[in-house]
Automatic annotation (TrEMBL):
InterPro entries: Cyt_P450 (IPR001128), Cyt_P450_CS (IPR017972), Cyt_P450_E_grp-I (IPR002401), Cyt_P450_sf (IPR036396). GO terms for molecular function: heme binding; iron ion binding; monooxygenase activity; oxidoreductase activity, acting on paired donors, with incorporation or reduction of molecular oxygen. Keywords: Heme, Iron, Metal-binding, Monooxygenase, Oxidoreductase. Its cofactor is heme. This is Cytochrome P450. It holds the Pfam family p450.
Length: 205
């Protein structure tokens, strides 16, 4: 179940990350320079390299901030009436957490609509544990996503491999569209079409 559940969500996050970096080529170039330093222009990305790729991991975190896979987290239902802030939540009420809105709240984030991976380098305490309710793309508490470790490894490794092995550009005559399509999973309204160009000196890599 974890593998099947992680397939669509992983590819969706990769698509958003690539789209945001194509929109801001300087971010893509900076991530590629980090890969050259850590992996080497003659090397291929190994899973053991990913923890050393601090900027690329910040790109992943920023992608999940702006484009959380599930805009509404798995619903909760209180077993007894309770107060949340100024609201009374009656027993049995189905409660949805709008993580998409929280991640774009200007009370929580500077320039919340700006794709800025540097924010996760300036403040390094952000993680996926859900302990800070300003950033919890995988949920929080006992019902937090069980596949966090797998998702973090898969997205980081796949994204690193894609941008290390290839340069990318938008298809000729096409305009990059970052519009979202709301649903159970937050997808791009228009699928990303990007053209790869080999960048490593050895084609077999």
């Amino acid at each position: 179940d974890m593998v099947v559940g992680g397939t669509d969500t992983t590819s969706n996050t990769l698509e958003w990350a690539m789209a945001e970096m194509l929109q801001k080529p300087e971010i893509l170039k900076k991530a590629q320079r980090e890969l050259e330093e850590v992996v080497g222009i003659d090397g291929i990305v190994e899973e053991s390299d990913v923890p050393k790729l601090h900027y690329l991991r910040a790109v992943v975190k920023e992608t999940l901030r702006l484009h959380p896979v599930l805009p509404l987290l798995v619903p909760h239902c209180p077993s007894s009436s309770c107060n949340v802030g100024d609201y009374v939540i009656p027993k049995g009420t189905r409660v949805f957490i709008n993580v998409w809105a929280v991640h774009r709240d200007p009370a929580c984030w500077d320039n919340p609509l700006e794709f800025d991976p540097e924010r996760f380098l300036r403040e390094t305490h952000w993680d996926f544990t859900g302990n800070d309710f300003r950033y919890f793309p995988f949920g929080s508490g006992r019902r937090i996503c069980a596949g966090i470790a797998m998702a973090e490894r898969m997205v980081g490794f796949c994204l690193a491999s894609l941008i290390h092995s290839f340069n990318w550009r938008v298809q000729e005559g096409e305009k990059l569209d970052l519009a979202e399509k709301f649903g159970i999973v937050m997808k791009k309204a228009v699928p990303l079409l990007a053209v790869p160009e080999p960048r490593l000196p050895k084609p077999e890599l």
